[in-house]
Amino acid sequence: MSAVTPRRRLVGGFVGTFVEWYDFLVYGLSAPILAVYFFPGSSPVAALLGTFAVYAVSFLVRPLGGLVFGAMGDRRGRIRVLAVTVLLMGASTMVIGLLPTYQSIGIGAPALLLLCRIAQGFSAGGETSGGLSYILESAPTDRRARWIGVAVAMSWLPSVLASLLILGLRGGLGNAAYLDWAWRVPFLLGGLFALIGLWLRSTLDDPEEYVEATREQRAAHPVRQALRSDRRAIVTVTLLVAVQAVGAYLLLSYFYTYLTTVAQLSVTAALLTNAAAIVVMALLMLPFGWIADRFGRKPVMFAGVGWLLLGVWPAFALAGTGGIVGALTGQLVLAVGVALFASGGFVTMVELFSTAVRVTGHSIGYNVGYAVFGGTAPLVAAALISATGSSSAPACYVMAIAVVGLIVVFRTPETRGARLRDAGTESSVASSGELSPL
């Protein structure tokens, strides 16, 4: 019997997740300044699009990282993969803070920035699937959605820390100093945070669910087995992720840029309103997670896609007015929809797979979905506004994704109460009270 208690696993798991995603998300908040230093030879719009293109490329490598770390997580253990991912993420983040600019080495600067983002994307490919699998397998059966909700909230809150840190640097050192050199500080701190995350994860061990499952059956070739036996679950996860990725990453990585460049809001107001919306989104995961545990995953997912479908146009319309009240209200509307969907969606996506191939199966579907929809969301949003001249144009993209989401949720099985060991099998579906076919 392990000496590590379930609650300690939860704390160790979500603190490590917080560190990992601080490193990944700080890039989005630094996009305007990175555009100046790494893409200076073009118009401001083209430079920003170039910065978001590099952002998108990091998502394209996530499926490869998911394959490598997914197989490692299922064959070698959850903790091992989580230690490697946080170390790789921290190192690549710190290097971004040390990179020479375009003015110093020319085209080599954006090339090195791209390599760092590729390393971050490769690491992120294993982090979510490994971390969520670890939390799920450590959680009591009747609290899985709430525990996963905590982990997801802790992957969003680093954006708030990064926002407040940037605001503090601008206010404490002055805007000139921030633009000159202090923009590097958030990236350098990411390396230090990663060492803390690595230490925290080194004190944990694999959950009993995983240990017992591997005694019964260990997948010799997790990728092959997942692609053969869980293809439908992988496709389902990819499409569920589309809703989550577009909504969440617009709020986490694009809205700050949108508010400062499109709505012409001040940097301080943009950072504070964005941070407030993200905090609300994270806090909502707790009550919404309780509802998902009590009444099922599908009701809250349906509520989430319905909310986004009806609310995203007013959200962008309000945020684009240029006022602080409109900016905050618009982001809060988006935050509610994302939190609703996430409270049921994230736990469903890991519950669809059996323990033997959970990290691998989830990582394939999840990372393909994020590569296609999440990494491109800021780029698509910026391109739509540039092409149409409408500040609300990105809402059309979110609404189209939400329509697809409604269909996918309808065809997704209810996983509340499913036995993790044989998730996705007929016995597991029957035990969970499944009502609709996959």
TrEMBL record:
Gene3D superfamilies listed in its UniProt record: MFS general substrate transporter like domains
Designated name of the protein: MFS transporter
Residues covered by the Major facilitator superfamily (MFS) profile domain: 9-416
Top-level taxonomic group: Bacteria
Classification via Pfam families: MFS_1 (PF07690)
Originating species: Amycolatopsis ultiminotia
TM helices/strands, residue ranges: 21-39, 45-69, 81-99, 105-126, 147-169, 181-200, 233-256, 262-288, 300-320, 332-352, 364-385, 391-410
Membrane topology: Multi-pass membrane protein
Main location as per UniProt: membrane
SUPFAM superfamilies: MFS general substrate transporter (SSF103473)
Location within or outside the cell: Cell membrane
Keywords, alphabetical: Cell membrane, Membrane, Symport, Transmembrane, Transmembrane helix, Transport
